[in-house]
Amino acid sequence: MALLDGIPCSSAVTSHRPWPRVVVDADGWQKAIDRLVANEIVLLGLWGDADVVHMALACPEGDAIAVISLECRGGTFPSVGARHAPARRLERAISDLFGLEAAGTPDDRPWLDHQRWDCAHPLGKGGRPKQAIPYRFLPSEGEGLHQVAVGPVHAGIIEPGHFRFAANGEFVVRLEGRLGYVHKGIEALMSGATLDGAARLACRTSGDSAVAYSYAFVSAVESALQIEVPARAVYLRALAAELERLGNHFGDIGAICNDASFALMHAQTGILRERCLRVAETCFGHRLMMDLILPGGLARDLAVDGHAAVTGLLAEIDRAFPRLIELYDKTASLQDRTVGTGVVKPAYARLFGAGGYVGRASGRPLDARRSPGYAPYRDLSFEVPTLQEGDVNARVWIRIREVEQSVQLIRQILAQLPAGAIRAALPSSGEPAEGLALVEAFRGDVLVWVRLDEDRRIARCHLRDASWFQWPLVEAAIEGNIIADFPLCNKSFNCSYSGHDL
Amino acid sequence: MRRTLLQSIVRGPLTEATPEPDEAALAELACSVDHAARTRLGRSLAIRQVDAGSCNGCELEIHALNNAFYDIERFGFRFVASPRHADVLLVTGPVTKNMREALNRAYNAAPDPKWVVAVGGCARDGGLFAGSYACLGGVSQVIPVDLHIPGCPPSPTQLLKGLLALLQHAGANLPSS
Ligand code: SF4
């Protein structure tokens, strides 16, 4: 069954690339929800626009993608979240930002809007700020239950968010997160921005995924404008993306072990992470490789000593990492903490369409580099490691295996690196155009959707972090675990706050 | 594990030489804290990091200060879990309106004397996020700032230079005992 089968639509938007966007009526919208509920298709994104809501859908294998759009008559649209839970927070965000209400939603609490802004619905109809009302956490009832409130400011050097635990003694009965603290209004700042300016903002949506975000943003723009990017830039983008993935995986593998009080691993992987960042700086002039990827290509070519620096890094990883894998595998006290802790059931991962190591550790073998796939990964060989257990240990192992894959990918990229230009010219005007892209960041797929105006400025840009579909799973994973294991569980997800709140 | 530990011992440290404290930072600090406050703090500073809306890039580099290359604890800096234990608040981000209250509370919870260090371009004036409906545009919009460390994000070396300037300033005029 094809992706849009059984979803009647009135027209297709021809300026939307590379995947179709079709306009549906309320009936088509409902049919799409039916298919989501039946698990025949997966929700990729749901976002607002001027009096319109868009929903991105994918087939379960991830290789077919489409966007359906519904005009919101009277400022409402039929709630997807009422029948398909993964849409709920996205709908709350649409309500906050646009004032478009999901009719029939069981959860009409604000999400990103903490009633601290000077206006309501900043991306939509505007208006006076909403009256501040105390946030209603979901109730937990039962004998001996108590609540523990944590955040937004946490004990470590991490991003702010609030967690509300209902616990029975040590055991967590329910966890509910509250996010939005780092909402910066990035999508509003994007509107009207130049392409290069918007690329700089995209980079800073989640600093740990600066490369992946700019990669996704420019891919959407280049699809919209049908630009051919020079081959060298295509390969160097992938080099940057894999360096970013390596750095994050090293840092997080160590940090997870550190949360299980195994500091030795943290110290050792910290060295490898630092090496990655230094090589990134040698290669591209910035440790996090911000502002490297621009629409049309790259801002800078690989530095002359970049090739040697990367080769040296790979050699060090080859030398040091197997020993660390062994250390992880053979330390019983560490395994005791990670095995069986924080389990995400495969059914939940499938329901939420969870990407990244969260999905892959729970039997969902998707990776945007493979499906839908994009250049240059189509020409490179790599595996997508998958496990079924879904616990902290499985998430660690997925990341270990992905380190090995990234090393292999970088070897291929260096061997095949084409010579030539690194940036294509962009047209300065033209018909309005729309583009969509899905790029695999280290934590999962980043979706970017853009609409460009005639002057090649951003009319509307939506960025969807993988965390939107992973945060709810943190809440499911901790249930029945002890509160003391929460930092460990949470770190094994390492969801982005900034990427989610944006 | 034994092998890993043994290798770490024989390999020799990776730790970098101490960078010079940042001149500009020293100048900015010169007028910020009085003598009495300095003498009470001594040569060890407890740092509480507060993310007030950062993109998390600054946090990554602050984290790096703890790795084997920068090893910030050798200078007497410690990251602490509560603002109540802190001498220094290290604040990142353009200060989102949703974080204003939490930042204020963290500041008020830190005992006097204290310093506030604003880290990154965002924390200075909002950076790329200046002008957003959701941001206040810099830490000094909410609490008094003693020192700015520029960069987007500042590298660990830049962070160290700024913090060393702070330490030198805090330790100045201490009795030599
Ligand atoms: S200064 Fe740069 S790296 Fe730091 S929080 Fe702001 S945008 Fe992110």
What does this structure look like?
The complex is a heterodimer of chains A (502) and B (177). Chain A is an alpha+beta fold. Chain A has helices at residues 26-37, 88-98, 186-190, 195-203, 210-225, 231-259, 263-284, 306-330, 332-338, 346-352, 356-360, 369-373, 392-416, 471-478, 486-493, 498-501; strands at 11-12, 16-17, 21-24, 42-49, 52-58, 65-71, 76-78, 101-103, 145-150, 162-168, 171-178, 293-294, 297-298, 433-441, 444-452, 458-464. In chain A, helix 6 runs antiparallel to helix 13 (392-416) and helix 8 (306-330) packs antiparallel against helix 13 (392-416). Chain A is globular. In chain B, 36% of the residues lie in helices and 13% in strands. Chain B has a five-stranded parallel beta sheet, with helices on both faces. The radius of gyration of chain B is 17 Å and the shape is globular. The interface between A and B is large, with 51 and 51 residues. The site of iron/sulfur cluster (SF4) has 12 residues of chain B, from helix 4 and helix 6.
